[in-house]
Amino acid sequence: MLFPVAGIEVHPLFPPAVAFVISFFTSMSGLSGAFLLLPFQMSVLGYTTPSVSATNQLFNIIAIPSGVLRYIREGRMVWPLTWAVIAGTLPGVVIGAIIRITYLPDTADFKLFVGGVLLYVGFRLFKTIRFKKRITLETDVITPPIGTTKTLEFSLKRIAYSFEGETYTAPTAGIFSLTFVVGIIGGIYGIGGGAIIAPFFITFFGLPVYTVAGACLMGTFVTSIAGVGIYQALSYIYPAQVIAPDYLLGILFGLGGIGGMYLGALCQKYVPANTLKVILTVFILFTAGKYISEYFF
What we know:
Elements: E1 2-3, E2 8-9, H1 14-26, H2 34-43, H3 51-73, H4 79-103, H5 107-128, E3 150-154, E4 158-163, E5 166-171, H6 172-189, H7 194-203, H8 209-237, H9 247-267, H10 273-296
């Protein structure tokens, strides 16, 4: 099947199948999978124009709601954290899209940028992995987290909520500042920012992965809508460049992501947080190393 905007030809079942597998694993940590889907589009499909960033965000818009719905039903959506993420990333995404078109239209430069972002994210996640001194026995039972989150405070000073008998707090201003910067990076990359925000929440603010997942997915969903809109608008300003998303390809990716994210959110509570971090770290560092090495060698 020919996708004229992307300039590629591929079997129509291939994009949704790939998106399903990627989203299943990444959604367990609050990530849409777009940060791995973009390298797939560039390296495997050969889709390298600025339009690939917009198509990646279109995937988010279609795929994310199924995962978000699951977190809401299970009472694991921390709404104050979600609103803070959205407020910070929205203006950043607009700025990031403009930077992508103006300063990073070249494929080689963009891949180096992507590799650098992934390297940092992978490094931060690696530092949070707990290496156990004993081997887990087959008889060990993994007890999934139970209960729901409860908001304790939401003000300009801080956000506080409880989960499984523990209270977690984070400074509102700190979250807003972080998500604004992340929004710029996400707008350039075409990921909405969840892949970068989640590791920061886990490492800097000490928030559990089981509670940040929903907030990161919802924030990515809203900012991706803005991202697609700004890329579409920029396509009229820069007609010589391929900037607008490939809607057909993005929809196919999104359809696969719907199933992957829903099942990933469903299975997340049965998978140890450490295992999730290991899986993501391996994928991220491998892709980062590939792109950085390609640029220099």
